[in-house]
Amino acid sequence: MKAITANRLTDGRVIYRTEQGHWTPHLAEAARYPADDAGTALALAEGEFGVAVGPYLIDLDDAGPAGQKWRRESIRLAGPTTGTTHVLAADAGAR
Amino acid sequence: MLNLQLDHQSRPDVDARIASGGGEILTVPASADWRELKDRVPQAVQIDVHFESFKDGRGFTLASQLRGRLGFDGRLRATGHVLPDQALHLKRVGFDEVSPDRTDVADDWSQAQTRFATVYQPAQRGGETVVAKRTRSKADLAALNARYRGMEAEEIFEDAIKRIWPGRIAMMSSFGAEAAVGLHMIAKVAPSTPVLFLDTGRLFAQTEQYQRELVEKLDLTNLRIIQPSALEVAEEDADGKLWSRNNDACCTLRKVRPLDRISEDYDAMITGRKRFHGGDRIELPVVERLDGRIRVNPLASWSHERIDAYFKRYDLPRHPLTEMGYASIGCWTCTAPAQDGDVRSGRWAGQSKSECGIHRPVPVAAE
Amino acid sequence: MYRYDEHDTALVRERIEEFRDQVARRMDGRLTEDEFKPLRLMNGVYLQLHAYMLRVAIPYGALRSEQMRTLAMIARKYDRGYGHFTTRQNIQYNWPALTDIPEILEKLADVEMHAIQTSGNCIRNVTADPFAGAASDELEDSRPWAEIIRQWSTFHPEFTFLPRKFKIAVNGASDDRAAIRFHDIGLQIVEDETGQRGFEVWVGGGQGRTPRIARKIRDFLEPRDLLSYLTAILRVYNQHGRRDNLYKARIKILVDSLGIDAFRDEVEEEWGFIREGELSLPEAEISRIRSFFSSPRIEGQTPLPQTGPAAFRSWLDVNRRDHQTYGLSSVVISLKPIGGTPGDATADQMDIIAELTERFGFDEVRVTPEQNLVLPHVRNEDLFAVWEALSAHGLATANAGLSTDIVACPGLDYCNLANARSIPIAQAISETLDAQGLSETAGDVTIKISGCINACGHHHIAHIGVLGVDKRGEEFYQITLGGAMGTDAAVGEIVGKGLAGDDVPGAIARILHHYKALREDGEDFIDTLRRLGSDAFKEAIYAELAA
């Protein structure tokens, strides 16, 4: 199974393409394509202008990002696995 | 096809050579090695450097080398995939024109050209560097004036052109009544010095004729014609009568702004102004700074008689209008014969105006 | 510290307007992403995994307190409350919106800062010894030269679209803390036999996938010729550097393929033509720039404190450096708390550091290639107050130069190019070494981690390097041994096969235990390693794994 992902032009945030050809930050709302149809959908997304930068295909299984790039795509989906973002978020939560 | 000027000076000699087919038009890729073009460049009157991609920066060094190492003086064009964001860089390495693949962004190109007024490095053209601005101080001006005290005009021409501002200086000429003196000195010292001729679009036909005559006779090889922007003329002087309503605005449109547009290409400009012209010119120094730009006036101390003698000694042709009593010649709309021996009395006669604005009187002491 | 004049200010403002216009043109389609990308990169704007990243230039790593406060304000207002200091002495923000960046640039310009040429295939931010103007082993302050180069390289009309990025570093001390032998051009200030100062010029160094130690192109260059000589090198590179293969486009490959002698001939031929021209530096401009960089003068010369809490004493031992003026010291502010993210500072920490810089630091703080900060000038009598304030904010870890002073790139947690994560590995190594007492007992040793072969984490030049690789979706880490960045420059050698991330901290701890067992009196890790060779450590790395 495949989905189309990209970064949003205005702020760079990770987005996924929906059935309707819109973009969403939530993977759950993303359109899922059988491998054979994915290329056509990607070409369509690439031809559009304005919202997304650099759309490309990712592999998915029922649990989420899969295939060779599963870790990279999991980090894109969920954010950095560690680091100051987490520390500051934890501090803010504690206050 | 979109063809954009990067340099606001037309080169009639180059235009004429291209028009007459007198010289080769070379097309080379941005990847070309300048050394391999050595033999072909002397015959070329125009070189088109083609960019496959705007990211191929070789074309910038190539242009610089064509100008600097091979002395190419014809028209240099950048063609292909170049971006408006590169306008200033292209101009500074020596390109005159650009013909980009993409034709729908002409406005971006013209905007990009005026975006930066600050440059740090010396280049083929395009402005006095920050280092030069910093290091020339008021003291330098005094030092230069001291240096030129007691020097003959011709020596001043030679020193300014060859030693003080090599490659960064031009002669401004109106091709008016006294212009032949300075131009003759240029011809003797360095005939390839740029000679800037402000064609206001309101010149006497006799001036244009005289300009051609002098350039040919003196063999000046680098005449550059500066014209008002057609777009601005259409907007501000649609009926051609702006001069009668507001002659200051007309001078600004037809003289001051066109000259401003090219002024960053030179660190200094030579003028033919003289103290005996009177008015603000009575205290004219040999070297002065006007709006941050250097003006060199080698003939500042010359008298009317001395000019006459020079014309006779070298048998220089006279401006056709001098025989009709014109002593100072500008646009036909605002020039009359002189009165009572005051040479500039015929300029904007009957009004308090005495200068068009290209030699704005900014006192040196104010800096 | 250099201060902008009206020309410097004008240029930075002009650049902001240009960038604002470029963003607008990208939004309405007048610029494609392919066109916009190189243009935004040249202004420090990357597109990373989760967001844009803005890299702000800190020329030769030097900041005033008001600049540090602005960096803190930007972290709070436009980012997520922190910034990341880099090995090239810059700062990166990981979360800004593209549409906010023109406004961020305005705030930076207000304090004479910018993001110009912090990325892209152009001449990058110039780096220098972070202890310049303070170091006791200094011949001459490198900062004026770095500033002269910064100005000359800014919007160079010929060198803005080079085959690949181009990095220049200047060093004026006998120790090389600027890693000049790993730069495209490295400049070492030297003195000839008559006592005249000039530059030894090195060319073609670099890391990445083809690490090279620079080769010396010139023994002595007169200061006035600096810019004409740099121009000549850049001209040869711009015309002849490869553009057909991204990985072979750096100047090091050109120097490899021509050979240093033929490369030198090309440069000298070009230089002969331009040497006497306008690029020749006027003495007046050199002195003008120099006049900004005087070292502080002090009255009363207090010796070093001899008493105080043990933690303060050990911080002095480890993080303090001798100053060229008696009575002053330089101190390293460690951004490597045990288990922390190397190089990160929160906005609150930046504000504290700004405060200390202003009160005790003669208003100057520096960024180091080790991703730490330095207060170059602190009066000895103020050291205790500085330490107290730093330790209250987690900034007084006494580990500068020790094994837990780890350098790491952002890795796969942020970076689009990375193959593996760096930050969690750095954190785990730091915790393990600290827990085993190796931070205090293993002496000076450098550990550096890169998440891919581009080597932003400088693993090639670490005594112990860690390189993250991806094997069919799994992270593995290769260990290298024996790299060094200074006058003893060396590229580390890969030792054996890659390790799983979980195995890296233990392996490195074993290397250090092994060193402690083998070292002779007063011998640092790198000396023992050089004496015995890396094979002597190989067994330590893999011993327990096999079991």
Description:
The complex is a heterotrimer of chains A (95), B (367) and C (547). By secondary structure, chain A is of the alpha+beta class. Chain A contains three helices and five strands; from the N terminus they run βββαββαα. Chain A has one domain. Helix content of chain A is 35%, strand content 26%. A five-stranded antiparallel β-sheet of chain A has the order 3-2-1-4-5, with helices on both faces. In chain A, a hairpin with a 2-residue loop joins strand 4 and strand 5. Chain B folds into two domains: 122 residues, Rossmann fold (3-Layer(aba) Sandwich), CATH 3.40.50; 233 residues, Rossmann fold (3-Layer(aba) Sandwich). Chain B is built from 13 helices and eleven strands. The longest helix of chain B has 17 residues. The termini of chain C are far apart. Chain C is globular. In chain C, helix 1 packs antiparallel against helix 4. In chain C, the strands form four sheets. Chain C has a five-stranded antiparallel β-sheet with strand order 1-2-5-4-13. In chain C, strands 3-14-15-12-11 form a five-stranded antiparallel β-sheet. Chains in contact: A-C, B-C. At the B-C interface, helix 2, helix 3, helix 4 and helix 5 of B face helix 1, helix 2, helix 6 and helix 9 of C.
